[in-house]
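User: Batch of two.

Assistant: Item 1 of 2:
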Amino acid sequence: MFHRLGDTGYLDADGRLWFCGRKAERVETADGPLYTEQVEPIFNTHADVRRCALIGLGERGRQRPAIVVEPTSWDFVTSSADCRRFARELREIAKRFPHTSGIMLFYFREKFPVDVRHNAKIHRLTLTRWAAEGATGYESDPKR
């Protein structure tokens, strides 16, 4: 039995259900969709990442994926040099997995906008608007 909730997932060959994330929060790139629950845990492995959010910039179907990071301490990103270093480290993590290898743009934000009822559910669409309206992003060279 399936019930429509706005979530995405799939059943694998062994019949296990894999949760991929909210349908509304997926990023639709030219290379295919990216889902929050398949991407964010990869970057959350960095010791200085408290949590992160996958966002998509641009038109659906051709969105550019980016990661917004809430660091464990704002002291890690006090200068542009710190942010560039952090972005390079995150890029190294991204290159380890085929589905994240195209992510080269990183933003840093002290606190994420969250649902007031849960204080945990990240408002990714708010972060997308914030980035699109001129927040400073740090791009890592794909060859690095």
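Item 2 of 2:
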Amino acid sequence: MWQQFSPEKPQWPTVELIIVGILPLVLVLVGTICNMGCIIVLLSRTHRNNCRSHQPTSTNVYLIYLCFVDTVGLYQFNLDNAIGNLTGKSITDRSLVACKLIEFTGYYTLHLPVMYLTMATVDRTFMLWSSAYKRKIARPKQAWKICILIAGIFVVTDCFLLALGYRADDGSIQCYHTTNAVLTKAFNLFIIWFHLVFMSMVSFVVMIISTVLAIIKLIRLPRVNEAAYLRNKRISVMLGLMCAAYILLTLPNRLCFTVLAPLLEDSSGSNTIFALSDLLTYLASSLNFLFLSVSVKGFWRDLGNLFIMKKFCSNTIGTTTDILP
């Protein structure tokens, strides 16, 4: 994306090499390992919960999907930018098919994490405020269906991106552009109203409102069961911090590639600015492990069990039973 704004000669070549070429690859490696570890631990907790006849939890499912799409997202714009900087030719410049796929999956994997994190926050808030919701709706089976439905809806909303991109007369590949005026107008509207306003601003407002409502409920909640209260508090704080980090790290990128793009594209060092905003976005996709490992009791013990090949459904003394309710 931002390569189209780049000067022919980098303004700060060393800084650009680190920000655009090296750090994205580090994020891909670290983010993949951390997110896959989170997915395995969350899946094991859901499975162990069913084995022990505890009430299943839907929040786990949303977090599993969040970690998965964050992992896939690391390999889109992030990897394309890194390869382009290190080799002089990005993936999107090598093949028209690759160009179209990255156009679609790049935005697709930016939109899904926002929605899944929003759903996890809303789900937790409703569980605190409504016992009926907790009994009837907050179930893994329902959450799986909702996540699949969300993924299907975004396929429909984002699929027109596959029509962008074409091979020019000189043989070069022009990504995110089209000779069709209608598609160009649709893409411009998509970037502003769907990508920025709806998927960023509206979703962020919902996250903030849900977090505030969860805090209010926790303050008013009677401490009849101290363990349950602390568990709810810990998970709610974790989701609130995840939302705050996601908003702070992704909003600069949304603004740089939409309303601020005309101001930045001709400025000195624009290449580094756009790359840095991309890097912050994908840093947000790599922080799930940090929040889960700090906030979820027994996370490290469960993760350790992965390496010593213990069955998560066993009743061995010392295995943690704390789960996301």
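Strands lie at 166-167, 173-174.
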